[in-house]
Each structure stands twice: as structure tokens, then as C-alpha cells.
Amino acid sequence: TEELAANLRLEGFSVRPYHAGLDKKVKEENQELFIKDKVKIIVATIAFGMGIDKSNVRYVIHMDLPKNIEGYYQETGRAGRDGLLSEAILFYSIADLTKMKKMVETDGNQAHSDLMIGKLNKMAEYCETKTCRRKFLLNYFGEEFPDNCQSCDVCVNVYEEEDGTIPAQKILSAVSRLQERYGMNYIVDFLRGSKSEKIHGDHMSLRTYGAEKDTAKDDWMRYIKDLIQGGYLRVDQGIYPVLKLTEKSASVLSGEEKVLMHKIVEKLEVREAAPEYEKELFDQLKELRTKYAEEENVPAYIIFSDATLIELATYLPQDYKDLKSISGFGDIKTEKYGEAFLLVVASYCLEKGLTSRIELKNKKIKKTNLTGEISETKQATFNLFSMGKSINEIAGIRNLSPVTIEGHLAEFILSGKIDISKLVSPEKVPAIEAAIRLHGDQKLTPLKEELGDDYSWGEIKAVINFLNRKKEEQLL
Question: Which residues, in sequence order, are CB contacts of 381 under 8 Å at separation 6+?
Fold first, then answer.
């Protein structure tokens, strides 16, 4: 982390490192600078606490392969907590898998080692997949999702199929002649006729050694990955990623079956439509937010998230009535900060000759999906609930967590198919409503912290949906 942070600093980036070996005071200082937006990048190990809720993280970049999908999912979840477009980037090579397998082995506990290596193999499968990555992740956690998210690198690439039978036969033949004892890099070097000392002398006399010297290494790697994805090869599940033949290999080697390879021919730039907001006004609002944050000695996002400032700079509210439509402005924050932020917006509009666009915000709310599409997995939960099953019973039947089941059912509060009293005790609703007035409904974490352990995430989400439904019905 220190070396990478130093290199980034030389490139002109605002960056600090964070790892368990640093002095406690240094760690606290680096963390504080990052949280308060005084440092833009933190280069950290997993010692950087999961509880840090910085809402405006735009990138989470993994330089190393995470040990399991659960950890990766949590870590990437630190990006874009304010709901704005953010990206997760993972650098991966099969060599990472070898390194990590050695790290997760537990001496004297083979069962635990097998469990950890199994999780690591699943993480590698995620990296190698040619299907939608978001679908892969959600399926792993028992959720359904369409085949194309229109966002991950797989879904925004256009692939062209090409006949790869001959290179496939050369690869499978090489794996066979080398007695299924070597990994991807060795097979590629062998096929390309490498003179490296790593290539055993007796292998150089084999018929397939140097069979395809002119094909680039990256292309061979792509062919092998396609063969693994197609089930013509498999990677041994042990410590070293050795390539093995499968039952499907024979039909390709005999020429009975053709193999289609996938080649990326175009990368589509697909981005979520960003709201058209006044960037100059946004910067002015950020300055005002920073002023309050420094006065109160808190991170800027505690005052308001970037998403709230973008809404202000998009819809240009002119009075307190307008302000109620802006996410993040509960009663307390409106009373505390409303006048100052309205003044900045009003002054900007006066200077630029602009008027309020709050009616666009209200139209957007009006279009919120009251009876919209519900995924199959949520519908299955609703069906069991309608049969009288409890949340814990449904969780057991569906092999999902009670928190997930509560989240499913909360969706049906918004559509009116479930009454709020079925999910939340009437005596709990006023306290949750009070917390929402204080913090707004944009983020669940401040509400949960305010309410404590006696209130579940599902109950909070249910009340938010209940209030949103009431608001939408009033607009209709």
C-alpha cells in the first residue's frame, strides 16, 4: 500500500496509505483526511474498516484478488452509496489464484483449507465468466437477475464468434502430451516455442512444442479461457491451477466437434444518464457544505450527500415547500440548513435568469412504480407470505437470510399489496417516521444507527416505502 501510494503521489494524486502495520496515530490521521475529503484516494488493505460510511466514493479498485465473493461484494459496496454513478475495477490474472491459494491454506485443518480454496475458486470463476457479472453475483446470493445489466464489462462488450477448432485442438493436444501437469502460462509458452529455462528440455522434442509461434500470448490465453468456459478444459481445484482435460475434450481432438471462440470486436460506452445539473451551482453548494462540515467537525457527507447537492442544482428549489421534495432534507436539516442552501440556489438563479424546476422532480416522483414489475424471487417470497408463512419460515424454505426476505416484502408495501401493519408493529412506526424526518430517507444506515437494534432494516425500509406510497398517492 505504501509503495502504490508513493507512486500515485508522484503522479500528482492526493493519496494516503492505510494498513495494520502503520502507527495508530498515522492510521487515524489518514482515515480522517480521507473521510473529510481532504485526501482523495486511500490505498488500503482490508484493515480499512468496513464500518466507514463515506457516501461519495466513486471508485473501488482491487489490485489483488479478494479471497471470496462475500468480501468482494462488501468491499465494492463502498462505492456510490449516495446513489450516483460509481465504478468497481478488479485487476486479475490466474497467477493471483496460485498466490492466494497458498495464503488461505490452514496447516493441520484440511477441511477448512478446502472450504477457503473452494470460495477462492468461485471468486476466480467470477473473474473468468463470460456472462453478466451482476447476474453472477446476485445468483450467488440467491437472487434472480436478467441476463444483461447493461453496465458490467461483459455486458458492454460486443463479441464475435469465430471458428477456434484448430487452436483448441493444439491446446488440448499440448495439455494431453504434457500429461495434464501444467498450468496456463506453461502451456502457452510451450505452444509458442519459448526458449525459457522453465521449459523442460524433454518437452522441446514433443510434436506440439512451438506449434504456433506467431500467435500472440494474449490470444492463446483467450482461447484457453474460452475452452474452460465451454467445459473443454478445467482448472484443477488444488493449490496450483493445473489444466485438465474433460469428457468433452475427446470429441474436439477427434474432429467430431467444432469449437467457437469469442473475440471482442467493440466496447460500448454505456453510462447511466446523469441528471442535467448546474455544475457551477453544484460547486458553490459544495463550498457551503464544506463550511458547515468544518464548523461542526464532521465529514461533508454527514451534512448532505453529493446526491442531495445534485438534486438542488438540478431542480433549483426556491422556497421551503420546494425543498421538501429534495432527498436528504428532513425537518431537522431543513430547519438547520435550509435557509442558507436556498439562498445560494436563489442567488444563482437570479444571476443566470433561471427559475425553479421542481415540477420535474414531482413528475419523476409521480412516475414511481407503484405496481411495477416484481422479480420472480420477490414474488416467490410474497406467495409464501400470503400463505401465512413467517419471515423466518420463508428464509428457511428459500435458503435466504431473514434480512433479504424482509427486503422482498417491503417492496410490496410500495405497491399496496401488503399493509404496513403486517410487517411493522404500529407502536414502532412513529419512531421510524421521526428518524426519517431527522435524516431523510436516502440512506438506511443513519436511520438504523438512530433507532438501534430494536428496529430491523426491513422495518425501516417498509416504513420508507409506506411514506413514499402516501406521498405518491397525494400527487396522483
Answer: 394, 398, 405, 408, 409
